[in-house]
Automatic annotation (TrEMBL):
Main location: nucleus
GO biological process per UniProt: anatomical structure formation involved in morphogenesis; cell fate commitment; central nervous system development; embryonic retina morphogenesis in camera-type eye; hepatocyte differentiation; lens fiber cell morphogenesis; lymphatic endothelial cell differentiation; pancreas development
Underlying gene: PROX2
Name of the protein in its database record: Prospero homeobox 2
Subcellular location field: Nucleus
Compositional bias segments (type: Basic and acidic residues): 85-100
Region (Disordered): 1-58, 76-130, 159-195, 255-286, 314-339
Segments forming domain Prospero: 425-583
Biased composition (Polar residues): 318-339
InterPro entries xrefs: Homeo_prospero_dom (IPR023082), Homeo_prospero_dom_sf (IPR037131), Homeodomain-like_sf (IPR009057), Prospero_homeodomain (IPR039350)
Recorded superkingdom: Eukaryota
GO MF, one example: RNA polymerase II cis-regulatory region sequence-specific DNA binding
Keyword field: DNA-binding, Homeobox, Nucleus, Transcription, Transcription regulation
GO cellular component entries: cytoplasm; nucleus
Length: 585
DNA sequence: TGACCACCTG
DNA sequence: CAGGTGGTCA
């Protein structure tokens, strides 16, 4: 118990204070600066978003028009059925939408069967002229909605949409963006969204006029063509949805081109603000030896302790220790600097849909060295993050989204080509579990109130609360077991002084813990956790080595000590959208 | 009595 | 990781 007073008092401060200040200072998400303050991450997105918009706004309209022309041309010819490899396939029109067209060809011939002109049909068609307008109008709206869906998925926060499109709650996304252009839970970068809004509305007008023009053209067609128009209508709808599918498919299949870039550029920003010795650096709280925490992923060559590899006594600090300041931003406990980073909703959506591999495997697109020098801080966790901390720290953001999301969940699954993962379930989902595990790095004994604050998208009931508390109980159990095991191992390895025991990032103990709480290592384990772990280890060692473990309740004092070492949890973990990025992690 | 905890078990 | 149990505390 001797060195404890120092450690105990200093550590929590090192961890918690910066967390609070940093976060509260940075968490005014509505500030436009924030979006701009992060040029690189968003430098990518907006452009890709606009590209998508362009695709829909122009190219696709062109495609529509081209198809109309094709069909009109076809009207002038005998409506003879076409073979699968018909001439249309050679027309330039098809180049605009190769994939959808290919699919459509299989459908078209079938649909043309009822098209055989018959007098009765013609009559009906003539009467149907006004109806046709309605249908076209309907079609127009469908197009718009589809476009909006895509834009929402592709452009962060492109929530702008013409009135009267989707009813709220129809489709998973809809519930998320009831704020119009404003950044909803889904999109915190108000900056770009406002741009998107205007762009979109302009594009929308353009689309509307295109459609009106189209309908005029169609109305002037020979009556025999009316039936064809019906086909055309259906075809357009289908084409659009196919286009949507293909675009999304492309995005889903080819995310590395977009997503990691965002992450990468993002990473460069974080270290700048807070390069210097993390809070505890001044920390004065600990034996300088204990501070020597080598970077992780270091070659294990330095491990000189024979079979004691779970944690390493500081035998050769000279070779292994790295100045704390060198560890930069990663090293400190509360990774507050990340909280203001704006991430891309689609990225996280995509992540949530089985693309995690791209992240956990990282390297192909690893950040340029200059962004985080020397094995930079593994900020991947934050790359994955989607900090929709759009509300102030205390404002319990996103409460409104809960019920809507649940509704959206029921209505949603088939509204998009992929299921919605961000949706909050009645109970706890794997994302919540993952998040809870990450929270464990900061708090071993979170109160139920704290849990409620950090899971704003969970509707807490007695059952849910106790389940989550049970999670932490299980986490602790595993943690203490590992600690005791390591302590005993150290003892049997001949370690004599607990002060020389420290949990290092390249130690086996760390690896075990990291695997348990942070599988995939997509979260940078905060140093404060290492410090607490070291202290825990020391306490266990002390108890074991002094024979206190003969007392049936010998662990209780240790528990008491550790329970006082909780740190503040970074605000970023408060985001209800946070679990979703790690959903399948 | 309820909340929370550690421990044991499957 | 969840269920069950018994202990502690307010």
């Amino acid at each position: 118990m001797e060195p404890n007073p120092i450690l105990l008092s200093a550590q929590p401060q090192a961890c918690s204070h910066p967390a609070e200040r940093g976060l509260e200072g940075n968490s005014s998400p509505s500030s436009p600066e924030q979006g701009r303050g992060l040029p690189s991450p968003w430098g990518q997105m907006p452009s890709s978003g606009r590209a998508d918009r362009g695709w829909f706004g122009d190219e696709h309209v062109q495609a529509k028009r081209a198809r109309v022309e094709t069909i009109v041309r076809g009207i002038c010819l005998p409506p003879s059925p076409r073979g699968p490899g018909d001439a249309r396939a050679k027309g330039s029109v098809l180049d605009l939408e190769k994939v959808p067209e290919r699919k459509r060809k299989q459908i078209l011939p079938v649909q043309q069967v009822p098209l055989q002109p018959s007098p009765a049909r013609n009559q009906a068609s003539r009467k149907g002229a006004p109806r046709m307008r309605d249908q076209l109008h309907q079609l127009k709206q469908q197009l718009r909605c589809l476009q909006d869906h895509i834009l929402q998925a592709a452009v962060p926060g492109a929530a702008a949409r013409g009135p009267g499109c989707l009813e709220p709650g129809k489709g998973p996304l809809s519930g998320k963006q009831r704020n119009g252009c404003g950044p909803g839970p889904w999109a915190a970068d108000s900056d770009h969204h406002q741009g998107s809004c205007t762009d979109i509305s302009a594009a929308e007008k353009h689309r509307v006029s295109e459609v009106q023009h189209l309908s005029k053209e169609l109305r002037s067609l020979p009556s025999g063509a009316q039936a064809l128009l019906e086909i055309l209508k259906k075809e357009l709808t289908r084409a659009v949805s196919q286009a949507v599918d293909s675009v999304l498919q492309k995005v889903l299949v080819d995310p590395p081109g977009h997503l990691p870039q965002q992450g990468r550029s993002f990473q460069g920003l974080v270290p700048e603000g807070r390069g210097e010795p993390s809070p505890s650096g001044g920390g004065a709280c600990r034996d300088p030896h204990v501070l020597a925490l080598p970077r992780r992923v270091q070659p294990r060559a330095g491990v000189s302790l024979g079979n004691f590899s779970l944690a390493k006594p500081l035998e050769s600090p000279g070779t292994r220790s790295i100045p704390r300041s060198f560890q930069g931003p990663t090293a400190s406990c509360p990774s507050t600097a990340h909280s203001h980073i704006q991430e891309n909703p689609i990225a996280s959506q995509l992540l949530g849909h089985g693309l995690n591999g791209h992240w956990s495997s990282g390297p192909p697109q690893d950040p340029p060295p200059q962004l985080y020098p020397s094995l930079g801080p593994a900020l991947r966790p934050w790359v994955l993050s989607q900090p929709f901390t759009t509300a102030g720290p205390e404002s319990r953001p996103l409460l409104p989204s809960v019920k809507t999301e649940q509704g959206g969940l029921q209505a949603g699954p088939d509204a998009l080509p992929f299921p919605s993962v961000h949706i909050s379930f009645e109970g706890l989902n794997p994302g919540h579990l993952k998040k809870a595990k990450l929270m464990f790095f900061f708090a071993r004994y979170p109160s139920s109130n704290l849990l409620k604050a950090y899971f704003p998208d969970v509707q807490f009931s007695r059952c849910i609360t106790s389940q989550m508390i049970k999670w932490f109980s299980n986490f602790r159990e595993f943690y203490y077991i590992q600690m005791e095991k390591s302590a005993r191992q150290a003892l049997s390895d001949g370690v004599t002084s607990p002060r020389r025991l420290v949990v290092l990032r390249d130690s086996e103990l760390f690896r075990t813990l990291n695997t348990h709480y942070n599988k995939g290592s997509d979260f940078e384990v905060p140093d404060c956790f290492l410090e607490v772990a070291s202290l825990t280890l020391q306490e266990f060692f002390r108890a074991v080595s002094t024979g206190k473990d003969s007392d049936p309740s010998w662990k209780k004092p240790i528990y008491k000590i550790i329970s006082k070492l909780d740190s503040d949890i970074p605000e970023i973990l408060k985001s209800s959208s946070y679990p979703q990025e790690l959903f399948q992690g």
